[in-house]
Specification:
The chain is of the alpha+beta class. The chain is built from 5 helices and 10 strands. 23% of the residues lie in helices and 19% in strands. Strand 4 and strand 5 (195-200) form a beta hairpin. It is globular and about 80 Å long. The termini are far apart.
Amino acid sequence: MRERILAAVRLLAVGLEVVTLVGVAAAAQGPAGTGKKLTWVHPKTPWGDPDIQGMWPSGSMSGVPFQRPETFGERATLTDDEFARREKAVEGLRTGSFVIGAWGEPGKAQRQASLIVDPPNGRMPALTPEGLRRAAYVHSSWQDRPFDSVDDLDTWDRCITRGLLPSMLPAQYSNGIQIHQAPGYVVIRNEMIHEARIIPLDGRPHLGARVVQYMGDSRGHWEGNTLVIETTNFNGKTAATNPGTSGSPQQNNIPTSQQMRIVERLTRVDDTINYEATVNDPIVFTAPWKVAMPLKYEPDYQLFEYTCHEGNYALKNLITGSQAERARAAAEAKQP
């Protein structure tokens, strides 16, 4: 059933995206021969919903840190000097010998100081005692630690999922986000780990509390031209952030719980979707927190097949390589 819905949505989306582009172009150009531009008008789908279809990759924000440097305080934007240094750093990733410069998406320099915008200092709230306890059991390949089983690696390492919110956040590569619409539904596709969230808009209730999932259970509605998505029913097995981005002294991977609730708001303004997401997980965090970022429309962006699966060789090699390193170290320690 899921496959049939996706197939129908994809076919419908092809035609609708053409309608969207024609509508936007007409609104922007003004009367023929006048050379004047009209005020942008939000396009609508044939059934009357605000049209937000298309490619909206998050890669342009990959140069923005997840958390704000503590020295910034509550200052949310960079000075000219700070922006110049960030431009230089991002250009170094693009042209340097580091592997991301060859096939990654280093993004573009932005003046936004951090992806987190609330609390006002742009820092993740402290973890609760239970959050700290759970953090000790969240591991990933980004950590310098031994690996002996798949449980020593996170769901991204295992090609299961990045989870929500990380699936919407910029990463090193494969930052494609594609939005489809059909009457009563919005579908958000993520290039990395090939996620597809099918979001009903008909007011149906969430799944029963006993039904939990890696990506949770999403329900949406329109508030004017803003799409509001509430997601609950998480299984608590994914991280709250991308590995290595949290800056937490306790753990690179921040845990989640089954009580996590995420509310996303997507508002299209011309060629930009203003994206916001508020995370509330009272089991893990002492307070809610919010990220915000612009998603730019890029019609020429292509989603590539993310051929990642749980039985991949990297998973086995991480474990056997870690075991071999420790065996060699032990053997060398026994030598006179």
